[in-house]
Amino acid sequence: MPQTKPEVWLRGPLPQIPALLQPVAHALLQAREELNLLMAGFPDELLWQRPAGLASPGFHLQHLSGVLSRLFTYARGEQLTQQQLAYLNAEGKPAEAPNLTQALVAAFNHQVDAALQQLIATNEATLTQARGVGRAQTPSTVLGLLVHAAEHTQRHYGQLLVTVKVLMVDK
Fold first, then answer.
1. CATH 1.20.120.450: does it fit domain 23-165?
2. Mean pLDDT to the nearest integer, 103-111
3. How many Cβ atoms are within 10 Å of 126's Cβ, its own excluded?
4. Domain spans of the chain, in order of start
5. How far apart are alpha carbons 30 and 10 in whole angstroms?
6. How far apart are the C-alpha atoms of 60 and 37, rounded to whole Å?
7. H or E element at residue 126
8. Closest CA to 151 of 18, 5, 31, 6
9. Mean pLDDT, residues 116-122
10. E strands, the chain, in order
11. pLDDT score at 94
């Protein structure tokens, strides 16, 4: 069913989100809305299919949650936990559970909620502060990490959209 509301960025400022972080929040909320519509009723048996060698929908769903968690952790100036590293290692590996698609979508929704709470708590004065990424401490900034999290989410949602549409062609 097509979306009848304007895109999130056209609905006005989001309460409590700092002005400079509005685009990050808008992108995350837009991805969440579209992903929830796309994945409603998606069959678990197609979750790990890789048409034409593309990444599976299951990978994208896992990665969307994982990358948000990791990038927002780096934005706080923290290193990844053992749990985050284990999650990273498991991304893309087929898993089986009842209603797994719904569970992966719920995990993404939870991660977007956590990201929004972090955006609310982010002081705009910290946006240009340096942050290291990964074990190599590759240089970035708070703003760089938050913007990358938003664009990376949009990129993977787009890839998920195409893969799901291809898989659902005969359904």
1. yes
2. 98
3. 14
4. 23-165
5. 11
6. 15
7. none
8. 31
9. 98
10. 130-133, 138-141
11. 86
Contact partners, residue 9, CB within 8 Å, separation at least 6: 22, 23, 26, 27, 30
CB within 8 A of 52, min separation 6: which ones?
166
Q: How many CB atoms lie within 10 A of CB 119?
A: 23
Tokens 């048409």 label which residue? 51
| pTM score | 0.93
Please give the structure tokens belonging to residue 159. 């890839």
Three-state SS at 45: helix
In 3D space, the residue among 42, 38, 31, 39 whose CA is nearest the CA of residue 8 turns out to be 31
Cα–Cα distance measured from residue 95 to residue 50, given in angstroms and rounded to the nearest whole number: 14
Residue 110, helix vs strand vs coil: helix
Token readout for 91 is 């991304």
Between vectors from CA 35 to CA 117 and to CA 37, what angle results, nearest 5°? 120
* Cα–Cα dist 157/61, whole Å: 9
Distance of CA 145 to the CA centre of its chain: 13
41 CA to centre of own chain: 20
E strands, 17-137, in order: 130-133
pLDDT in tens, 125-161: 999 999 999 999 999 999 999 999 999 999 999 999 9
